[in-house]
Design a protein that fits this description.
This protein has 8 helices and 15 strands. By secondary structure, it is α/β, with parallel strands linked by helices. It folds into 3 domains: 117 residues, D-Maltodextrin-Binding Protein, domain 2; 88 residues, 3-Layer(aba) Sandwich (D-Maltodextrin-Binding Protein, domain 2), CATH 3.40.190.10; 67 residues, Alpha-Beta Plaits (2-Layer Sandwich). The strands form 3 sheets. The protein has a 6-stranded mixed beta sheet with strand order 2-3-1-4-11-5, with helices on both faces. Helix 4 links the parallel strand 7 and strand 8. The mean pLDDT is 95. The structure holds adenosine-5'-triphosphate (ATP) and zinc ion (ZN).
């Protein structure tokens, strides 16, 4: 029987979320401590644990069929692999940062400067596009200390809150790319493997769609049901059921969480009461 091989990060910032996604998709792994290859027990998938930087090469070579990693690593590796799906976690940006004390005007500040980074490929493409000549100094870890030890004038590094930069006396001055975890795939998969991948992608989409949606239940006076229903169109249309108290109904619907906050005041002003907002686990259209 055909099995799809998925490469995920062995340990690091992507590991827990990658394993969490499998769990949410109802895919259970065989427990085997320190194993590099673990089969799933209830889905034709096996998991290969790697360093994230190695995933693009393994997927390009077909040693792994698919992989989960950051878009930053996909771009840096410049391998022939396909990005199939954005996954919505491990969001970060790759930014240029300089000493807090420096005055930053525009990109020309970087002209002829020395920049330390673990992302020389992305950085040199960016500088070339913007007509800036720099010396790029490649280092693989602790990039943020480079300016303070005199190794570079600036850094190009991953930022999420900016607190690491700040505590190293740096400030972010330019975002070069935004990144999140993605699912990548080998470009020449067999039909059988593609079929398994499609099933897996279907589950991922159902899980991710559910995350941004909420199930909403509220009570409303009958004469307001129509107006309130228009605010909450739901998947097809809301469910309306009568309450045992005459003149009142309960409305059930599904809304995007963002949309819910936008319409909450209108719902209340139309007399909606007892509003419950409940998480959804899976959402199949
Ligand atoms: P490995 O040992 O596997 O090579 P690593 O040290 O290169 O790991 P991590 O620090 O675990 O990598 O980061 C993995 C990925 O998580 C990054 O490539 C990036 O996409 C994302 N990431 C990194 N830092 C953050 C952050 N602060 N917030 C959110 N996502 C991040
Ligand atoms: Zn890495």
């Amino acid at each position: 029987m055909t099995t799809l091989r998925l490469a995920i990060q062995k340990s690091g910032r992507l590991s827990d979320a990658s394993k969490g996604l499998l769990k949410e998709c109802g895919i259970n792994l065989q427990n085997g401590k320190n194993k590099l290859l673990a089969p799933a027990v209830n889905f034709p998938l096996e998991i290969l644990y790697l360093r994230d930087d190695d995933i693009p090469q393994y997927v390009e070579d077909g040693i792994a069929d698919i992989g989960i990693l950051g878009e930053n690593v996909v771009a840096e590796s410049a391998k022939n692999i396909m990005v199939k799906q954005k996954l919505g976690f491990s969001k970060c940006r790759l930014s240029l940062a300089i000493a807090k004390s420096e005055e930053f005007t525009d990109l020309s500040w970087f002209q002829s400067k020395k920049i330390a980074t673990s992302y020389p490929q992305i950085l040199s493409d960016y500088l070339l596009k913007n007509n800036i000549q720099c010396e790029i100094h490649k280092i693989s870890g602790s990039v943020e200390i480079a300016p303070s030890i005199g190794l570079a004038d600036a850094v190009c590094d991953i930022v999420s809150s900016g607190s690491t930069l700040f505590s190293n006396g740096l400030k972010e001055v330019k975002v070069i790319m935004r990144s999140e975890a993605v699912l990548v795939a080998n470009e020449n998969m067999s039909i059988d493997k593609q079929a398994i991948l499609n099933q897996f992608l279907f589950r991922i989409e159902s899980v991710n769609r559910a995350k941004s949606s909420k199930y909403i239940i509220l009570n409303a006076p009958n004469e307001k049901v129509k107006e309130i229903s228009n605010l909450l169109p739901g998947m097809r249309s809301p469910t309306v059921v009568s309450l045992s108290e005459p003149g009142w109904s309960a409305i059930h619907s599904v809304v995007n969480e963002q949309k819910f906050w936008e319409v909450i005041d209108q719902l209340k002003s139309k007399g909606a009461e007892g509003i419950l907002v409940v998480p959804i686990e899976k959402m199949i259209l």
